[in-house]
Amino acid sequence: MGEGKTYTLIERLKKQNEYYQVNGKRFLVCVPRITEQERIQKSVDCSIPLKGYKIENIKKLIREGRNICCTHSLFDMFDDEIFALFDEGSIKY
């Protein structure tokens, strides 16, 4: 713990976000804890799914082409519709 993994990820996302914006790509980052998710959101332009209907909210964020940060537990709940949105969407993740 405390080895700089999240810091390194944040720095990399800051650099790559400029590239992604120009080339029409977005990122989806999955982290183990909500505290890391919130830390990334404060440092980088990304959305986190709202409490409550997180699966439906993440589908909306994908359709809108947002940069997204979620937890591993939410990623484990992704269904076929979410993966289809990634495959068929006009914006690549």
Task: Describe this structure in a few short sentences.
Helix content is 56%, strand content 9%.
Task: Write a structural description.
- The chain is mainly α and 93 residues long.
- The chain is 56% helix and 9% strand.
- It is built from five helices and two strands.
- It has helices spanning 5-23, 34-43, 54-63, 72-75, 80-88, and strands spanning 28-31, 68-71.
- Helix 3 (54-63) packs parallel to helix 5 (80-88).
- The longest helix has 19 residues, at 5-23.
- The protein is globular, with a radius of gyration of 13 Å.
- The model has no long low-confidence stretch (mean pLDDT 89).
Shape descriptor reads: globular
Low-confidence blocks of residues? none
**What is the radius of gyration computed over CA atoms, rounded to a whole number of angstroms?**
13 Å
Tally the helices.
5
Number-wise, the strands total 2
What about the largest sheet?
A: 2 strands, parallel
The computed structural class is mainly alpha
Compute the separation of the termini in Å: 28 Å
Q: Quote the average pLDDT.
A: 89
Order of helices and strands: HEHHEHH
In helices, the fraction of residues equals 55-70%
Instruction: Give the neighbour order of strands across the main sheet.
Output: 1-2
Fraction in beta strands: 5-15%
